[in-house]
């Protein structure tokens, strides 16, 4: 096994992969069903042709630029495991700052909204650390919500997280205006992440509403906290990103329109409608978007607008208060 992974390490190294050794170890271990520690302790074990072929298939995917996390189908975020699919952005470590800040303001028993939830990493990380909090997570992609549902279940927060498919705040409004006869006037249909997995269509149609009616949520409720990591890369720049991002992260998760600010305008315009007095809005931003996003929030009379930097010293999160 040692010779096998080291051989692939050398191939990746020659191709210029910075993390050639780690990638080769992780993918070899994954293909063989072994952790990196087990791999190390079985250096001299022989590998049959079928197993070597499985390893080669994964490494060849890596050579096209697909990330190790996408190949393995899982990535850790805030110390928790998150399954990925083709519709989910791979959660980034920078986004953990948003979770830290959110945890600092969400009151006991608080209720949050996450716009553009993807894998569900942000609300799931918050709810996993705040056992009395509840939340709603929205995404336009039904396929992303399938992953978010699985992740909510796996991380033990499914009963406290409702998932809604739709565009930004329209998802809330749509579910409000579609009362179910079973639920009574004013109760919208969402799909609660705690609904039975069997009730989900595993391959939802790309358009339409694949989510079955699950639990109910009260659309009259407002939020103590709205969080979002929306797509914020300008359309022109998306084309110039590394293959790992451009070819494998979903375009819907990246493209923020001609100036990268389109989702922030929608969020700024409607946040106060959905925030409780005293509630907070927090969004992840690109390193050069702090001033522009602050200006959008100030224009809508949000208070205490501030930018927070990540561990690399880059502007990463804008927060605002609805007094
Ligand atoms: C940058 S990704 C963030 C995903 C996840 N929150 C994270 O931090 O890893 C943006 C997400 O917004 C979703 N999205 C894009 N346009 C949307 C829209 N109009 N309404 C709701 N969600 C949208 C994408 O599908 C994607 O999941």
What structural keywords apply?
323 residues; alpha/beta; Helicase, Ruva Protein, domain 3; Rossmann fold; 2 domains; eight-stranded mixed β-sheet; two-stranded antiparallel sheet; 12 strands; 38% helix; binds S-adenosylmethionine
What can you tell me about this protein's structure?
The protein is 38% helix and 19% strand. The model is unreliable at 178-189 and 195-215 (pLDDT under 50). It has an eight-stranded mixed sheet with strand order 7-5-4-3-9-10-12-11, with helices on both faces. A two-stranded antiparallel sheet has the order 1-2. The longest helix has 15 residues, at 49-63. It has helices at residues 2-14, 20-32, 36-41, 49-63, 68-72, 96-105, 121-129, 142-154, 170-176, 235-238, 243-246, 262-274, 290-299, and strands spanning 74-77, 80-83, 111-115, 134-139, 161-165, 188-189, 191-192, 216-217, 223-228, 275-284, 303-309, 315-322. Helix 6 (96-105) packs across helix 7 (121-129) and helix 12 packs parallel to helix 13 (290-299). It folds into two domains: 2-63, Orthogonal Bundle (Helicase, Ruva Protein, domain 3), CATH 1.10.8; 77-322, Rossmann fold (3-Layer(aba) Sandwich). S-adenosylmethionine (SAM) is lined by residues 89, 91, 95, 116-119, 121-122, 138-141, 144, 167-168, 229-231, 252-253.
Question: How would you summarize the topology of this molecule?
Answer:
Elements lengths: L1 H13 L5 H13 L3 H6 L7 H15 L4 H5 L1 E4 L2 E4 L12 H10 L5 E5 L5 H9 L4 E6 L2 H13 L6 E5 L4 H7 L11 E2 L1 E2 L23 E2 L5 E6 L6 H4 L4 H4 L15 H13 E10 L5 H10 L3 E7 L5 E8 L1
Parallel strand pairs: 3-4, 3-9, 4-5, 9-10
Antiparallel strand pairs: 1-2, 5-7, 6-8, 10-12, 11-12
Helix pairs in contact: 1-2, 2-4, 6-7, 12-13
The structure holds S-adenosylmethionine.
């Amino acid at each position: 096994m040692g010779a096998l992974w080291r051989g692939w390490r050398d191939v990746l190294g020659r191709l210029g992969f910075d993390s050639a050794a780690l990638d080769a170890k992780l993918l070899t271990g994954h293909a063989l069903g072994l952790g990196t520690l087990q791999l190390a302790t079985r250096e001299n074990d022989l590998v049959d042709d079928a197993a070597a072929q499985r390893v080669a298939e994964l490494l060849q995917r890596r050579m096209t630029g697909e990330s190790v996390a996408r190949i393995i189908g899982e990535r850790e975020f805030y110390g928790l495991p998150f399954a990925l699919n083709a519709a989910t952005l791979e959660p980034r470590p920078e986004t953990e700052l948003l979770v830290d800040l959110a945890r600092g303001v969400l009151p006991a028993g608080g209720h949050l909204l996450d716009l553009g939830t993807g894998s569900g990493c942000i609300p799931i990380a918050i709810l996993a650390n705040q056992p009395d909090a509840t939340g709603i997570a929205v995404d336009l992609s039904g396929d992303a919500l399938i992953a978010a549902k699985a992740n909510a279940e796996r991380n033990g927060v499914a009963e406290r997280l409702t998932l809604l498919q739709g565009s930004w705040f329209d998802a809330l409004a749509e579910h409000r205006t579609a009362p179910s006869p079973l639920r009574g006037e004013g109760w919208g249909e969402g799909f609660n992440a705690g609904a039975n997995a069997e009730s989900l269509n595993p391959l939802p149609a790309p358009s339409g509403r694949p989510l079955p009616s699950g639990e109910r949520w009260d659309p009259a409720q407002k939020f103590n906290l709205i969080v979002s990591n929306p797509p914020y890369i300008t359309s022109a720049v998306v084309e110039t990103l590394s293959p790992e991002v451009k070819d494998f992260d979903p375009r819907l998760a990246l493209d923020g329109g001609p100036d990268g600010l389109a989702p922030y305008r929608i969020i700024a315009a409607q946040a106060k409608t959905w925030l409780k007095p005293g509630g907070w809005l927090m969004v992840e931003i690109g390193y050069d978007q702090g001033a522009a996003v602050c200006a959008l929030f100030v224009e809508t009379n949000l208070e205490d607008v501030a930018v927070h930097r990540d561990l690399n010293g880059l502007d990463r999160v804008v927060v605002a208060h609805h007094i």
